[in-house]
Amino acid sequence: MLHIVNKSPFENTTLASCLRVVGKGGDNALLLIEDGVYAITKNSDAGKAVHAVMGGVKVYALMPDVEARGMQDRVLEGVTMVDYAGFVDLVIEHNNVQSWL
Amino acid sequence: MAIEINGKTYDTDEEGYLTDLSQWDEDVAKVLAAEEKVEMTDNHWEVINFLREYYNEFQIAPAVRVLTKAIGKKLGPDKGNNKYLYELFPYGPAKQACKIGGLPKPTGCI
Amino acid sequence: MSEVAGDFDDEDGSGTIKKFMFVNRKAPYGTVYALEGLEVVLITAAFDQDVSMVFMDDGVYQLVKGQNTKAIAMKNFSPTYRALDGYDIEKLYVERDSLEMRGLSESDLLVPVEVLSSAEMQVLMNDQDVVIAF
């Protein structure tokens, strides 16, 4: 299952809730878009939380959103960057998708 | 839009549903029924009253399938079936009876 | 979401039944999400779909007993959750951590629910055809 988070982890608990559920095993992927991409900042609190689930969860981020925010050189290792076409591929590859509000 | 009966004004929306549930009374129900070409009998009132009780309890107008089942439970299978309810309210029991009963259009009614 | 969710009517009229999960994560009156979500659930059920509801994070506040909106001039739609049973929506799941973080327990809720751990929730979500968040 693909989980999409678009909220900054520093002003909203959505990412934390998503990780609480998604981090518990299963075949899951996490895609960060919009302000959600701040979550993959190296050495940040949110980055550490994301890193902690990366053993079981594949983590992706939407490159246009990362670049727009100037965060491309501060990205946590192990995160896969995707463009818009890659976003579409991820949606197709997974049996279902949840866009966390 | 509005309906006026004996000097009392009842506000309605563009589809003819009352906009203020608390304005409902039997007078306006009769006028709304006449507009729907429904002649009110005891059996009609029974359904209307059932619907209003349902609304008071759950704060929604039920979908027709739910209404039929709930009526069956309370008034028996003779009344909890589509045939009986459509004979009373030919253009849809939930839709027509809700209008006459002063309730909003049922959720899930398309 | 490999298929379009609106695929309700097959040519033989039997329709396609999919597993729809609605994930409710917002408190009831501060935003319109909870009420809108509830309406979508009722409409989905009218199409004879397999519907379940999840309440987590502030979404658990939707089910708290004793809501009274008179003084804020908004509709109290909490009684509508009690109508779900009549719509054959019997699968209501609440995440345990969300309840506990808010100092709530199952007895504070106005409908019978199944309380699940985050791990159980994860398994359940993966099992759905369509997951919609409100």
Automatic annotation (TrEMBL), chain B:
Its main location: cytoplasm. One of its GO terms (molecular function) is sulfur carrier activity. InterPro entries: DsrC-like_C (IPR042072), DsrC-like_dom_sf (IPR025526), DsrC-like_N (IPR043163), DsrC/TusE (IPR007453). GO terms for biological process: tRNA wobble position uridine thiolation. It is found in: Cytoplasm. One of its GO terms (cellular component) is cytoplasm. SUPFAM superfamilies: DsrC, the gamma subunit of dissimilatory sulfite reductase. Keywords: Cytoplasm, Transferase. Pfam families: DsrC. Belongs to the DsrC/TusE family. NCBIfam families: dsrC_tusE_dsvC. This is Sulfurtransferase DsrC. It comes from mine drainage metagenome.
